[in-house]
Fold these 2 entries.
Entry 1:
Amino acid sequence: MKVSVIGYWGGYPAPGSATSAYLLEKDDFTLLIDVGSGALSRLQQYKDIMAIDAVILSHYHYDHVADIGVLQYAWLVQSYLMEHQDILPIYGHTEDKEGFEKLTHEFTEGIAYNPEETLTIGPFTISFLKTKHPVPCYGMRITDGDSVIVYTADSSYQDDWIQFSQDADLLITDCNFYADQDGTGAGHMTSREVGMIAEKANVNTLILSHLPQYGDHQDLVNQASEVFDGRVLLAEEGLTWEK
Ligand SMILES: [Zn+2]
Ligand SMILES: [Zn+2]
């Protein structure tokens, strides 16, 4: 499967880029994970909007769902232009009723996932871990049968990440804080925490994402690398990983 980073900022996007959004592709199937601010614009540099087969959301904070509305308008306009009736499934949890209800529109349908169970979407099997965040949020462990990726979504540190990420080929983490900061109150992790998770979980490659708007991002890489022996990459638009 192939992962492409579309948006990687925490909170709000820097000019010309986007907050959380990742494309996951296998054969002809395309899953969009989170649809942050700017995601729809940036996505079109890489993929036809109508070529997306499904969307899944970790939680309903704006930096993960801001472009759901314009994605729905895009499907509405294109469905008329192309004269077809396909409905785009958007998977979300139901612990925020209002957020979940907004997923259904003329050409999109909100589908509830049960985080207690594994979910199959196209070629992907997904299991969930509740994160430590001010609102209900779920991290995902996704496999296509060949390789495994883990996406922490938004979370402060919890030991559960180590087991959940065990032996993953790729770990994409919330790395919104530098090593000397404390992300606990905000519900985010530091570079050192995610490096430690990657090391203890025996992960192959770590992508630092949900990046802060200040400081030198290379410091995040250096700090994570102090505790993790594997490969550490900084999220950037267009970054791809394939296995
Ligand atoms: Zn976020
Ligand atoms: Zn959040």
Entry 2:
Amino acid sequence: MYITYRIISQMKIFIVHAHPEEKSFNAALTRHATNVLEASGNEVVISDLYAMKFDPVSDRRNFTFQQDSNYFKQQLEEKYATENDGFSADIKAEMEKLFWCDVLIFQFPLWWFGLPAILKGWVDRVFASGKIYGGGKWYDNGIFKEKKAMLSLTTGGKLPMYTEIGINGDIRSILYPINHGILHFVGFDVLPQFVVFGASQINDERRQAYLEEYAERLLNINDTHPIIYPVLADFDADFQLKS
Ligand SMILES: Cc1cc2nc3c(=O)[nH]c(=O)nc-3n(C[C@H](O)[C@H](O)[C@H](O)COP(=O)(O)OP(=O)(O)OC[C@H]3O[C@@H](n4cnc5c(N)ncnc54)[C@H](O)[C@@H]3O)c2cc1C
């Protein structure tokens, strides 16, 4: 089968990959994304969190020194570290990749209707107050407002379970805390998620089709409309939608 792709302008893509098994379908998705994107002239950087043995526990070790060593208050320490170059080396490396990229992708299996802990911990530690958000830098005025982000995930449950009338509920509602509460909160334009439903239950042919659909999605990133959220100007002084 021959697939024709549009020529796209070069992008810098940062994939944060969270799966413990290198033969998994999640790993196949990340490998395929890398091959397809690089073949069309894009740059790809991957943080393979399990392979890196990324420490997801957020605590004092996030910092090389502390403002207050008697009482740990993470957001205050984050602001202090932002002003004094005080983040630990592993956090600084991930922040650099975030500022480098045009497009951020989270690749993960849905675990308990959310991110695997290693990826949630990556967010807890890397998305630091002062450096990544805060001081009026949020939502459509966020630090990353010129950048795009996208979730690529697999589920155990099949698609009908993730509709409005499905037993698990609409996948868009399940992913809202990640899309809106994490990615859009720090300014990203969030593209609609790419979901492989029932990854272990479908056959190889269907999985192959999903890989091709994913390639198509990635190569059309520049033409993909982000999810529409209200903008800051839509809210009053109490951050409630103006009537
Ligand atoms: C802690 C935990 C919580 C969970 N919570 C949820 C939940 O809330 N909701 C839910 O729906 N599910 C849940 N699950 C299930 C989980 O989401 C799925 O098991 C996962 O998404 C499947 O993706 P995978 O990459 O691990 O699949 P794998 O099992 O690794 O892969 C699926 C199949 O793809 C094959 N494959 C690999 N590479 C290729 C390739 N290149 N081409 C074709 N086939 C290939 C593999 O050999 C395998 O047969 C949970 C699981 C755990 C462990």
